[in-house]
């Protein structure tokens, strides 16, 4: 009998995974859920709190295999926007190489944080304010649009777009956390009706540090035509579901839930541009994912520790009009498109949990789930593949 602790009741992915394990326990591996403070657990679905989960709880029971669905350090090294920029710079050899796959970026500290950084004479400060570099670079460009994103912002919050760099800096100075100010991608690839989109890809890192990417991704689409001359119309520029659903009267007009899947997108690329998703776009995505995660292996790996980790990441990308892929951000606790959730959760169990907690080989049948709801949209069954 294996035991699991769920300290994140809000996660749609891990609640689905939990139910798969518990519902399948009668005939396959036997799982039971225990209270959150139970010490002899096998599997923990950790909390997503500001201070993060308590890793000191792991690996202290002799002979007990324990695993958690996060890699320690991933949040502060990869899954916040300011550390992500600093990290990408550290693994590339030059500024030109850095900005081959993330937009030109500057770290800007609000006035109150900048003064603290300056008082430390930048010796012990975690981040250095780069506003002078930003202003000098911005003044040298013909394209003037910039986007400011808070380091730990989510759901489209704390984002500001402007073609006035002084307005951007003034906005950041009113905030309470570090921001990344990036050169706005002014020439995005557009869907029909001239609409923007971004791509969410799900990436699984198992306990052996093997990198998998889910074979199906989702385009999160805009409901309004893209208009670079009207930066105040946020539904024209921000494709986040929360923004589109709250502020656009056209939400769901073009795609159900403003979601397009790979099959439809592949046909659109082929028919409109003669471009292949499989050979032009996905290899760029896979390359960026591998660069990000392999560069952190020494910091993140649990090899040699007394517990195991695995983690599901959400990598968000944008494609420009030249079919160049840009990394926007990495989410360490992503939700999943409803249509893909059953397949993603089932294969996450197979790839990340079953190898640590094997099922009874006499009853080693695949999980079955009523995924008829997912077949109402233009998608196919997905699975994780090694990259």
TrEMBL record:
Identify the SUPFAM superfamilies for this entry: Glutathione synthetase ATP-binding domain-like
Cofactors demanded by this protein = Mg(2+); K(+)
One Gene Ontology term, aspect cellular component: spindle microtubule
Known EC number(s)? 6.3.2.25
- Which parts of the sequence are annotated with region: Disordered? 357-381
Function according to Swiss-Prot or TrEMBL? Catalyzes the post-translational addition of a tyrosine to the C-terminal end of detyrosinated alpha-tubulin.
Which family does this protein fall into?
A: Belongs to the tubulin--tyrosine ligase family.
PANTHER family per record: TUBULIN--TYROSINE LIGASE
Q: What is this protein called?
A: Tubulin--tyrosine ligase
């Amino acid at each position: 009998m294996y035991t699991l602790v769920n300290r994140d009741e809000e996660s749609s992915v891990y609640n689905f995974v939990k139910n798969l394990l518990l519902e399948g326990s009668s005939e396959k591996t036997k799982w039971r859920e225990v209270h959150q403070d139970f010490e002899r657990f096998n599997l923990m679905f950790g909390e997503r709190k500001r201070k993060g989960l308590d890793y000191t709880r792991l690996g202290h029971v002799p002979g007990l295999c324990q695993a958690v669905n996060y890699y320690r350090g991933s949040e502060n090294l990869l899954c916040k926007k300011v550390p992500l920029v600093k990290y990408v710079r550290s693994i590339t050899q030059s500024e030109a190489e850095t900005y081959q796959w993330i937009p030109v970026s500057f770290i800007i500290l609000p006035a109150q944080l900048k003064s603290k950084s300056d008082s430390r004479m930048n010796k012990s400060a975690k981040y250095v304010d780069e506003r002078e570099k930003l202003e000098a670079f911005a003044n040298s460009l013909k394209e003037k649009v910039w986007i400011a994103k808070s380091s730990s912002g989510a759901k489209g919050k704390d984002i500001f777009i402007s073609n006035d760099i002084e307005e951007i800096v003034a906005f950041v100075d009113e905030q309470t956390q570090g921001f990344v100010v990036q050169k706005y991608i002014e020439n995005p690839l557009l869907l029909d009706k001239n609409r923007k989109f971004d791509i969410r890809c799900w990436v699984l890192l198992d306990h052996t540090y093997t990198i998998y990417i889910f074979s199906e991704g989702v385009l999160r689409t805009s409901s309004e035509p893209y208009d670079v001359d009207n930066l105040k119309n946020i539904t024209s520029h921000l494709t986040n579901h929360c923004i589109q659903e709250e502020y656009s009267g056209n939400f769901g007009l073009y795609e159900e839930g403003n979601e397009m899947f790979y099959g439809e997108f592949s046909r659109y690329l082929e028919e409109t541009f003669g471009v292949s998703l499989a050979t032009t776009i996905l290899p760029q995505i896979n390359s960026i994912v591998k660069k990000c995660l392999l560069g952190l292996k020494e910091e993140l790996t649990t090899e040699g520790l007394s517990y195991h980790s695995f983690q599901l990441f959400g990598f968000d990308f944008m494609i420009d009009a030249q079919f160049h892929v840009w990394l926007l951000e990495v989410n360490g606790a992503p939700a999943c498109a409803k249509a893909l959730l059953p397949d993603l959760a089932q294969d996450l169990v197979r790839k990340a949990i079953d190898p640590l907690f094997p099922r009874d080989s006499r009853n080693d049948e695949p999980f079955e789930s009523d995924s008829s709801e997912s077949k109402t949209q233009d998608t196919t069954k997905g699975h994780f593949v090694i990259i």
